[in-house]
Amino acid sequence: MAAAPGVTAGWLPTRWDRLNGPQRIAGVDLARGMAVIGMLAAHLLWIGDFSFADPGSWVAVVDGRSSILFATLAGVSIGLVTGGRTPLPPAQRRTARLRLAVRAALLWVLGLLLIATGVPVYVILPAYAILFLLATLLISLPARTLLILAAALALVMPFVQVLLDELPIWQAPLSPLLGYAVGWHYPFPVWIAFLAAGLGVARAGIRRTDVQVRMLAAGAGLAVLAYGAEALTGAGPQGESASFWGAVWTARPHSSGVLEVIGSGGFALAVIALCLLVCRTAVRWVVLPLRAVGAMPLTAYTAQLLVWAIAAIVLFGQTGDLAAFRDIEPFWPITLGIVIGATAWALLVGRGPLEWIVERASTLAVPAVPPAGTRPPAR
């Protein structure tokens, strides 16, 4: 009798195949790993203004752009699990929508729990949850429609966002709690453009070299256009409070200005494309630890905040002092710990623990629909 495939392959080879087999796209994992490390840097480092003339300031590229890269990759991931180039048929699409809704609920709850630790960062998970819910409306659309929609949203929603930020609800006594609950630091009316763009390139066939090259060219072009326009027009923080146009015409990180949306959205597409192209070479083995982080981004992101909370309580007696925590230079210890831990977990255990929980919960809550034409077993 032949041995079962898992027995023949052995535990470690199957873990290796999970991370490096054809079912995974190494470049997407690498981009997700870079997004996670970028968010760690944005949280844990003192970051000044970016200047091309000062290489020491280049770390400022992570500010805002890492979270936008994370959101764009959410769209890519959703596109891949809902059919890739071809949207799922209606029955399977309904299952996918319901599972996305379950995942959104779990992410929202986890986000609130992380906020409750008091760690002084804007936790992205509540916004991520809302984006997952909105994605349920988009997964039936083809690539061209999604990319046109992303472009339209990127051009229009920054103008709407300025008006939304002035609504009386944000002056109400409980408005800070509402802001945390909906992740308003990453406002979904604008950020749905990034998710739509990621979903669109997944539908376009993100595994194809020609698509990757066009992504790189288009993303780089958008970034140059937007940041060049900011430099040529002298847009800056001082103009944001002066007029409606000033609040829209800005590329400042986390401004949701039209130049930030176009520039950082283009930057995200270019980074994803570059990671995909790089991972077509032997470099994919050099960056395996980063790919391991990208294979379990939810676990890595959550681990960072939990380690932060525990360390801050031990050292300072409370979690809310951002300056004190940054001053102990925690970036490298936490980052190296997460990279080493994720690599060991991926090679020895497999799927990230939180990724496994979310996937398992969504599949248990929403069972798969049998393919069309099949009959249930006789009872």
From TrEMBL:
Heparan-alpha-glucosaminide N-acetyltransferase catalytic domain sequence ranges: 24-215
All copies of domain DUF418, residue ranges: 255-361
Transmembrane domains' residue ranges: 30-48, 68-88, 100-116, 122-139, 146-164, 184-204, 216-237, 257-279, 300-319, 331-350
Keywords annotated in UniProt: Membrane, Transmembrane, Transmembrane helix
Top-level lineage group: Bacteria
Signal peptide: none
Stored PANTHER family: HYPOTHETICAL MEMBRANE SPANNING PROTEIN, INNER MEMBRANE PROTEIN
Protein name listed in UniProt: Uncharacterized membrane protein YeiB
Species the sequence originates in: Microbacterium pygmaeum
